[in-house]
Please model this.
Amino acid sequence: MQLTQLEYFIVVARLEHMSQAALELEVSQSSLSKTIARLEDDIGVPLFDRKGKSIRLNEYGRIFYEKAEKALNDIQEAKTEIQELANIREDSVAINVMNSKLLPKLFYDFYKKRPNVKIRQYLLPDKLALQKLICGEIDLMIVINPIKDDRIQWVPLFTEEVFLVVPKNHPLAGKESISLIETKDEMFILSETGQNFRATENQLFERAGFTPNIAFEGEDLSIILQLVNEGKGISFIFKYSFLDQYLDNVKILKISNPDCFQTVGIAWNKKRKSSFVVSSFRDFAISFLKDSTV
Model:
């Protein structure tokens, strides 16, 4: 039995959906299916009930899921304790961030307090970052909207306004503010389904009362906004994003109706012990970002 088999099994068991699990793990569905089949052969019983494309944990699977998750948590905690004992992790923080202009000063001010701390910053897709947070490969996430997972603690930091962004030659570019319903016939370039910012976008459309026409969906907001900059459609940008400085062919419009805001928070795995440095950075970030946006 291999560690990879356990890691793959836990994701499939949590989602009970093979294609979604393959997407989250960034492996092919056929490779994932073979890994799970080998695990079941090794154990000697099926762990899932399969009917067509449907897959559900059975009685054996539920028992194994509980034990396997605990085993992986224990392994990661042991690794963390050993690394801290050897001073490998104690002076480092691994954090996944969003493209916010507030973050460089956050990191700089923390460095002034603790110049020997190494910060490893990532800008991963939300689903992948969450998986790494759960597995202990990263310590913290700064992310839009609450994370609905019993293992994750999410604390709100600040609320920021969301704006509409359109090409300068677009008919709407002559306005300073706009009701979102006025865009119901436009072509939108949006975040990919499953991204946290897409949840914000979906809420805006729902409150405005229409289903958008979608020309393109992507994981990378910088690519989305560059497409708007090239005149391929319209999209959204949030107040503290630093990406506006790279856009020379757009107009940013205030949305007058509905009120357009999103909440940014910091998340960590509450079932894993945080090092002193990680806890210190988390507390500093909460205080700093709340004060910076008052």
